[in-house]
């Protein structure tokens, strides 16, 4: 049925002013309900439908805002006193108390409660209901759970312009705090707006750093004093060393003078074991290793130039990128250089030439990390280019064990402080690898992608369970590793010792063989030189060298063959 | 006097460190500890007992709280509640 209402207006009336007037309502159409139509419809099942006055969206995500909570203590004050008693006045309170004690109900209830209480006290004294009935001397057999690690917290750089986390250091007492050094290591990428601060984080609170340290120039490395949990020392981008006391606030207590500091960023700084507990030493790519006493940072106490030719010539010095110091061997220390060499030095040497004890030709790129195994100080781990290598102090030619070439550059590594066969590495593709050399040597036991950008630094807490790694965008991630990778296994030490020995022996044999060959070479070349009268050309082109090598080889095989034939002839003639 | 006797008996038990009696408002009536601790215990425990009691009664209105024991690493706090008064004993089990 069509309901039509027609509005008409004369053409001549268009454009005329509208004159509105009231009019009563007019019923135009009245359509009564038709019950016969109801049979065509069925009742729909009731349904609860909620409506919200918001926009319809095809995809939407909501995340609650970060809730910042702060804990603070509550001050207790006496309350509940009746209005007429002033609880400050002793007399009134005493009077009140005496009144209560005289009360009948008080006496009754106390007597009753007293008997109940006595019963329980006696119970406690009779049997300790909370004692451990089943004493387990040892943990039950290892549940062969796959090794895993989970992220606990992420500490983000609160500034707008993110800087790389270049150094991490755990608080020495229990590791509740983590100090992170932030700087931008890319050449000339630091902008003026970049903040210079580094932060100390409380691991429970990732929202706000606990303390910010304000140096004059961004810090590249930062270390807590293992003896004094309040003092920190940091090496900065401009080569200065700064000393903080966390009780005294954000400004450094003292900074070294610019003239006597390094000329390049200080890449590593370590506290030394000394009676005063105030000695540190630092290394930088300007080729110097400087010793400092933090009470007097105006001048270093000692200086060493890393010159492989042992002349102390700063022109030829190697730039130092990493440093290692083991407290069990206080006079020796090792430096990893930009050129890929690892230099072992003795601090107590009398002459500067003896300071540099030996060098290990390690990597094709800078040695970014260097650490001795805390259980086997003769073996140390280095990381640089695309491999991680394990060395033995005695073998200078090559490392005793090495990983295969990885897909991306390794930036940092450290041993686990609880398990001698476990070490961790971080790579430029944001992956944290955990290696257990007793379990698998070709691949990492566990490989975790922590973040999308490169990871620059890594530090394990002393209990071996928490790992902190810092990324290029200023994120420090805290991970907890599964107990399998952080508890000492049976026989681990002895097995690992056997492995290291075996590898060391292998390398020794190889080294000895190499030396033999070289000796033979030299003696032969000397012989031929004396024959030719010194006409041998020293700078031979590679082709000539190869030709000579081939010749030598054939000569050797021929003589061997002839010798063998002669032997056979002798044997047959004997028969 | 009977009250004194009872309290003395309790105090003489092994490991008892302190006794506090508080009334339903949280005012400490009698105590063997120093004032500051007493006030702290009174305030905190009063709230806890109220909460525990209401919990028990919410689950079953016919039920009521008869005793509350808080075992911590260092000691055990035992609370005997009554209609108007609470008796609190802190014990360090010697075993």
UniProtKB/TrEMBL annotation, chain A:
Q: Name one GO biological process term.
A: outer dynein arm assembly
The cross-references to SMART domains, in alphabetical order and at most eight, read: WD40
Official protein name in the record: Dynein, axonemal, intermediate chain 2b
- Give any Pfam family that matches: WD40
PANTHER family assigned = DYNEIN AXONEMAL INTERMEDIATE CHAIN 2, DYNEIN INTERMEDIATE CHAIN
Its Gene Ontology cellular component terms are: microtubule; outer dynein arm
What keywords are annotated for this sequence in UniProt?
Cell projection, Cilium, Cytoplasm, Cytoskeleton, Dynein, Microtubule, Motor protein, Repeat, WD repeat
The entry lists its GO molecular-function terms as:
dynein heavy chain binding; dynein light chain binding
Species assigned in the record: Gasterosteus aculeatus aculeatus (three-spined stickleback)
Family membership, please give it: Belongs to the dynein intermediate chain family.
Task: Give residue spans, biased composition: Basic and acidic residues.
Answer: 56-66, 520-538, 558-569
Q: Which domain of life is it from?
A: Eukaryota
Where does it reside?
Cytoplasm, Cytoskeleton, Cilium axoneme
Query: Which region ranges are annotated with the description Disordered?
Result: 40-66, 520-545, 556-575
UniProtKB/TrEMBL annotation, chain B:
Pfam families attached to this UniProt entry = Robl_LC7 (PF03259)
Q: Name one GO biological process term.
A: microtubule-based movement
* Keywords assigned: Cytoplasm, Cytoskeleton, Dynein, Microtubule, Motor protein, Transport
The answer, when asked if Transport is one of the entry's keywords, is yes
Q: Which residues form the Roadblock/LAMTOR2 domain?
A: 3-91
Q: Which compartments is it annotated to reside in?
A: Cytoplasm, Cytoskeleton
Q: Among its keywords, does the record have Transport?
A: yes
Its primary localisation, in coarse terms, equals cytoplasm
SMART domains xref list: Robl_LC7 (SM00960)
Q: Which domain of life does the UniProt lineage start with?
A: Eukaryota
SUPFAM superfamilies from the xrefs?
A: Roadblock/LC7 domain
- Gene Ontology MF, one: dynein intermediate chain binding
One Gene Ontology CC term in the entry: cytoplasm
List the InterPro entries. Answer: DYNLRB1/2, Roadblock/LAMTOR2_dom
State the protein's purpose.
Acts as one of several non-catalytic accessory components of the cytoplasmic dynein 1 complex that are thought to be involved in linking dynein to cargos and to adapter proteins that regulate dynein function. Cytoplasmic dynein 1 acts as a motor for the intracellular retrograde motility of vesicles and organelles along microtubules.
Which PANTHER family does the UniProt entry name for this protein?
DYNEIN LIGHT CHAIN ROADBLOCK (PTHR10779)
What the record says about family reads: Belongs to the GAMAD family.
Protein name as it appears in the record: Dynein light chain roadblock
């Amino acid at each position: 049925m069509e309901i039509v209402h027609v509005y008409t207006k004369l053409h001549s009336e268009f454009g005329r002013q509208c004159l509105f007037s009231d009019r009563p309502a007019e019923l135009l159409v009245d359509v009564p309900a038709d019950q016969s139509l109801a049979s065509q419809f069925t009742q729909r099942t009731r349904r609860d439908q909620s409506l919200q006055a918001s926009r319809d969206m095809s995809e939407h995500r909501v995340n609650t805002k970060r809730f910042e909570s702060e804990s603070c203590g509550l001050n207790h004050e006496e309350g509940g006193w009746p209005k007429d008693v002033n609880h400050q006045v002793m007399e009134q309170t005493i009077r009140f108390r005496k009144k209560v004690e005289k009360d009948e109900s008080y006496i009754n209830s106390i007597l009753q409660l007293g008997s109940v209480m006595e019963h329980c006290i006696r119970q406690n004294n009779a049997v300790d209901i909370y004692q451990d009935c089943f004493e387990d001397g040892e943990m039950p057999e290892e549940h062969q759970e796959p090794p895993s690690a989970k992220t606990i917290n992420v500490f983000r750089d609160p500034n707008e312009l993110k800087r790389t986390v270049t150094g991490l250091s755990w608080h020495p007492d229990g590791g509740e705090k983590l100090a992170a050094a932030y700087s931008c290591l890319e050449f000339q990428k630091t902008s003026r707006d970049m903040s210079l601060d580094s932060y100390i984080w409380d691991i429970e609170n990732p929202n706000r750093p606990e303390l910010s340290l304000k140096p004059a120039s961004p810090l590249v490395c930062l270390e807590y004093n293992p003896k004094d949990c309040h003092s920190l020392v940091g090496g900065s981008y401009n080569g200065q060393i700064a000393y903080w006391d966390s009780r005294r606030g954000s400004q450094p207590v003292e900074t070294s003078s610019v003239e006597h500091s390094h000329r390049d960023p200080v890449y590593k700084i370590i506290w030394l074991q000394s009676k005063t507990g105030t000695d540190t030493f630092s290394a930088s790519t300007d080729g110097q290793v400087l010793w400092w006493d933090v009470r007097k940072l105006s001048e270093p106490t000692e200086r060493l130039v890393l010159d492989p030719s042992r002349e102390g010539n700063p022109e030829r010095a190697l730039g130092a990128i990493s440093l290692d110091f083991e407290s069990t061997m206080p006079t020796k220390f090792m430096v990893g250089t930009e050129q890929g060499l690892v230099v072992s030095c003795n601090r107590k040497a009398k002459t500067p030439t003896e300071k540099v004890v030996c060098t290990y030709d390690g990597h094709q790129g800078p040695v970014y990390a260097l650490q001795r195994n805390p259980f086997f100080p003769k073996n140390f781990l280095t990381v640089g280019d695309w491999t991680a290598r394990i060395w033995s102090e005695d073998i200078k030619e090559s490392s005793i064990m090495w990983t295969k070439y990885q897909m991306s550059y390794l930036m940092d590594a450290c041993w686990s402080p609880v398990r001698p066969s476990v070490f961790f590495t971080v790579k430029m593709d944001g992956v944290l690898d955990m290696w257990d050399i007793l379990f698998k040597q070709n691949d990492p036991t566990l490989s975790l992608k922590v973040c999308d950008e490169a990871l620059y630094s890594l530090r394990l807490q002393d209990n071996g369970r928490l790992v902190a790694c810092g990324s290029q965008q200023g994120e420090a991630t805290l991970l907890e590793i599964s107990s399998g990778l952080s508890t000492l296994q049976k026989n681990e030490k002895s097995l690992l010792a056997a492995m290291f020995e075996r590898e060391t022996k292998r390398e020794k044999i190889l080294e000895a063989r190499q030396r033999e060959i070289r000796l033979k070479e030299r003696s032969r070349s000397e012989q031929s030189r004396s024959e030719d009268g010194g006409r041998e050309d020293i700078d031979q082109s590679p082709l000539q060298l190869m030709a000579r090598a081939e010749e030598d080889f054939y000569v050797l095989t021929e003589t061997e063959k002839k010798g063998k034939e002669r032997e056979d002839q002798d044997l047959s003639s004997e028969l | 006097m009977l009250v004194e006797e009872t309290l003395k008996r309790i105090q003489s038990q092994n490991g008892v460190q302190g006794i506090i009696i508080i009334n339903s408002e949280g005012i400490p009536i009698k105590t063997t500890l120093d004032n500051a601790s007493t006030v702290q215990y009174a305030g905190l425990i009063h709230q806890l007992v109220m909460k525990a009691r209401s919990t028990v009664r919410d689950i079953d209105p016919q039920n009521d709280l008869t005793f509350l024991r808080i075992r911590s690493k260092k000691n055990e706090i035992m609370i005997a509640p009554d209609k108007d008064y609470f008796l609190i004993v802190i014990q360090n089990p010697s075993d």
